[in-house]
Description:
This protein is an alpha+beta fold. The chain folds into 2 domains: 45 residues; 215 residues. Helices cover 18% and strands 36% of the residues. The protein contains 4 helices and 13 strands. The strands form 2 sheets. Strands 1, 2, 3, 4, 7, 8, 9, 10, 11, 12 and 13 form an 11-stranded antiparallel sheet that branches. A hairpin with a 3-residue loop joins β5 and β6. InterPro entries: Ice-binding_C, Xrt_dep_XDP1. Pfam families: PEP-CTERM (PF07589). This is PEP-CTERM sorting domain-containing protein. Keywords: Signal.
Amino acid sequence: MIQRLASVALMALLPLGAQAASTWTASNCATNCAETGDAAPNVSYSAYSAAINTNSAGAYVSTGAFAASNLAYYSGSGFGVVAPSGDTASPNHALDNYGYQDLILLKFDDLVKLTQVKIGWSQYDSDISVLAYTGSTSGITPSSTIAGKTASTLTSSGGWSLVGSYADLVSGSDKAINAAGISSSWWLITAYNSQLGGTATGKDGTTGGLTRGLGTAYAGYDFVKLYSVSGTTTPPTNQRVPEPATLALSAVALLGVVGIRRRRNKAAA
Length: 269
């Protein structure tokens, strides 16, 4: 009986599951958004865009430098990005790679391992690239790792790592990502761009350009709106977890209490 009580006490003092599944859904909140019902870190959203450079034939060549852009929320569909010039009409106000390469930054206040992305709207094509920040965060802000970088230098000198590129997302359906299990506090989701590295994992991904091809008008370009992301989190880093010595002392104290009660019961018998 004493051993059983001690075991129960130890189990009560041990931390619960190290990870909890959570979903963060786009809403009118863009800063310090706490998702109702989730024991998850808060998240802040922001947007960046870079002008796409083309050659004389109109074919994609590269992007210019990223700069802060305008995050836009569309009820029922999620977040899009309205770049500085000529980008307000549909489908250009989406998270896209036509005219401008758009990024959405998700800044969590603790480590998160994203595992799924869901879009709420798409048009023409729907390929995305996902990046996680794996560089040093000491003395820097997320914006300093993005602003002034191009698509090709974001991963080579900006501290960002490509998690993967994913083709043909379906609106309303979760897309599995991050097979490597990377955890980070800062994440980027963008329309597919081959200069970020890797290829889209599907029939539409190619290594030779921005998307599967320019075609005519918008053909081959990617236009999506970010509806939600899901993943797992570790307990908050400021959470105090009982130390081994504390656990041992607590168990000993409980055994002492049980022993006293047992002696009292014998004395009263």
